[in-house]
Amino acid sequence: MRDFADKVAVITGGASGVGRAIGARLVREGARVVLADINQQALDEAVAAIGAAAGLTVDVTKEASVDALAASVYGRFGAAHLVFNNAGVGLGEAKREIWTLPLNDWRWGIDVNVLGVVHGIKAFVPRMLASGDEGVVINTSSSNGGLRSLPNTPIYAATKAAVTSISEVLYQQLLRAGDKVRAAVLFPGPNTVNTAIMASNLVRPADYVGDTPPDAVAYRTMQDLVKTTGLNIALTEPEEVADFAVEGLRAGRFWLLPESEKGDEMLRLRTENILLRADPQSAW
């Protein structure tokens, strides 16, 4: 898809961070952007700030809510050409062992980061195929989990591993369905992206509250994460991710993965370890 003018783009998690930045970039490209988010106040502010065509509330953990989003988009615009299943949460799991993590943390992470993608696929793909229009479904993964798993964020890494797998399967199945709709998977980066995802625990819905108090999280900003984990790297801004994602879509890529010397080397080592049947690198 080389031209985004007049295309309808739907972005979950669109009120902030990477979602909002992608929306702003696509507005500049002439697209009709629909931002979807659970946070109404942030959604209203984002729509006004970037000039989006619409802002619609959605709870991606609920299948009916995402289906209602799709119905509203098609009812108002008659199409959806770009669907970004982008909503995600951070759990603040660092400094805790995987066997101590509460089940409510797992449920929340999986319901948002994994089922949110599944609900988006179920709601939009049948409509996109039926329309006969060119389209792309873009799922937001992460190099953490989606390509290699860091030990300090077990739930997040597990959910993003699932997103990568789902995206690869979706790509293959859409190829069998024809050549109009395809899939892509986005890995924000190349460095840790400067978003507010680590503050997710502070606004956790009531359905998932009860196991982990807000003050139990190890960090609340990406600056805290970098400092806590000793990554010692510069942060990538959401606008950089948006520019890379849009140019990758223009080029027709499935792997929306920015180049990174360190990241590429870690991925290469992991792949070689698998081929050699060797143990995971302890540094990961």
From TrEMBL:
Keywords: NADP, Oxidoreductase. CDD domains: SDR_c. The keyword Ligase does not apply. Gene3D superfamilies: NAD(P)-binding Rossmann-like Domain. The keyword DNA repair does not apply. InterPro entries: NAD(P)-bd_dom_sf, SDR_fam. One of its GO terms (molecular function) is oxidoreductase activity. It comes from the Bacteria. SUPFAM superfamilies: NAD(P)-binding Rossmann-fold domains. It holds the Pfam family adh_short. PANTHER family: DEHYDROGENASE_REDUCTASE SDR FAMILY PROTEIN 7-LIKE, RETINOL DEHYDROGENASE-RELATED. Belongs to the short-chain dehydrogenases/reductases (SDR) family. This is SDR family NAD(P)-dependent oxidoreductase. It comes from Sphingomonas lycopersici.
